[in-house]
Amino acid sequence: MKHQSNQTNAHKGARINEEEANVFADFLKPLITKNLSLETIKSQYPNIFIYSIQTVYNWIDNGVLPLNNLMLVRKVRYTKRKPLKTDERNINRAYLENRYYDDFLTYITNHPMDEVVEMDTIEGPRHKSFIMTLLFRRCNFMLAFKIKDQTSNSIIEIFDHIKNSVGNKIFSQYFKVILTDRGKEFSNPIAIEIDKNTNEKLISVFYCDSRQSQQKGKIEKIMKN
Prior knowledge:
11 helices; alpha/beta
C-alpha cells in the first residue's frame, strides 16, 4: 500500500501514464547518453518530444520518468541559479506567453528556412551610451543602432525606423524571427512585431530562458570579443 501511495503521489499532476512514461524514457535514454540536451532532442524530434522541456524536467525530478538527473547535460553543467530579487519576481511576464524558448524551438522546426535574428543591447562606460545590435545567424551579418537609453520605447523607435525605411514586405522577409533575452527594454514585443498603422503582424519575437543567454550564443560571443 505504501509503494502504491508513493507511486500515486509521484504521478500526481502528470499528463502521462506509466506506459507512456516508460516508452518516452526509452526514447530519451540513448540520446541523453550521447550528451544531447533535452533542448536539442526536442528540436530534432518535435513529433515525439511533444511535451514542454520544463515539464519533462519536473517529471524526472518527481520520479514520473525513470531517468537520473545526472544523465542530463543541462542538469550537470548548469550552476544553481541565484534566487531572484523581489522586484524581478514582480515584473509582469504576460508578454512571454507563446514566446518562450520552447516556442522558438517549435517554430524553427516547423519553419527551418526562416532567418533568425539575435537581438541584444550594449551599455557604454558610465551608463552614458547604448547600442542595440541585430545579428543575422545565417550570414553572420550584424546591424548596430545607437539608442538614447535602455527602454522599450527606444527599441520600438529603432524598429519603426527600420519598417519605414525598408517597407513591411522587406522587413517581414528579413526579420522573420527575432530571438532576444528578457531585458526590460525588450518587454513590448507586439510593438516590434506589428505595423502600428494596420496592426498587421509582420514578424515573431521569442525569448531565451531566464539567465540562459547562451541560447543566443552567436551575438553573445561577438559582444564578448
